[in-house]
UniProtKB/TrEMBL annotation:
Gene3D superfamilies: Aspartate Aminotransferase, domain 1, Type I PLP-dependent aspartate aminotransferase-like (Major domain). This is Histidinol-phosphate aminotransferase. CDD domains: AAT_like. The gene is hisC. Homodimer.
Amino acid sequence: MSVLDLARAEIRALQPYSSARMEASGGELLLNANESAWAPTGDNGAGCNRYPDPQPAALVDALARLYGVRREQLLVGRGSDEAIDLLVRAFCRAGRDAILVQPPTFGMYAVCARIQDAAVVEVPLRHDFTLDVDAVLAALTPAVKLVFVCTPNNPAGSVVPRADIERLVRALDGRALLVVDEAYVEFADEGSVTDLLDRYDNLAVLRTLSKAWALAGARIGCLLAHPEVIALLRRIMPPYPLPLPSVDAALLALSGWGQANALAHIGVVRAERARMRASLAGLPGVRGVLPSQANFLTVRFDDAGAAYSRLFDAGIVVRDVRRYPGLDDALRITIGAPAENERVLAALAFPAQARGVA
């Protein structure tokens, strides 16, 4: 059985849009895409009057090396969000198919499914925010085509052991595609599962340059999967997804200097995460701090609303996650630079001083 048998038949049969860049490459005088012959003001040689390569070769090669995959196993797009949307549209028929998620988790899986009119099957994480593989498999129905697993989890910060990922992907063979979201994996002790891609054609992995690589504003993300899945999604992807400035920013970040810089910052975040967890746990009004393998800590408060207000009054914005199951007393606090983290601690420990009150 091919993994594409899980995808929508009408997508497999779709005649995709063929852009000018797809149909022809090379040449010196480009008159095939109705572009302007003049660069825009302030372009400085960036070439923004021309459409970009749909999958820029230099960027695809750099990302393939970074993630240890073959270039045909990689699709680069506008953040992980685009890959999530493409997967749902390719595999889920409106009003008939479903995805499966484990709340609390990243909200875009469900948003993309509901836009597609696909059902969302929810199997909550355990009370300690670990994944219950048996419960996931028990909830699986023939309608479920995609199972999303976020590790490290957002917003809890917990990880799914590699053994559980392997058990899931084996059990889902021929039934559903397992999509592992590794947006925060660079901050975790346990590494990526991308090395399993050659063993399981029903495994896909989401990666992003938004977090550890400091490129949230550039919107660069990847799907790593079986080449047939990558080729299928390219059929429904917009023809020019990546702006040239974003591609240039990504290539700089992935250069030798850029990688050294990113690794240094990851080390700071990991050290600050440990320090902040200990410091936050000792503050009055803090019930507990969830263990995290991401670049954030989720903190339980006696009064999370009051804590949010104290931080906001001090000019600090954190994420209110009280709407998520099991987190009705919690705020999610991103690990910042050391001086920024000190401001958080000061605002929570000494709210009057943080607001400038004598």
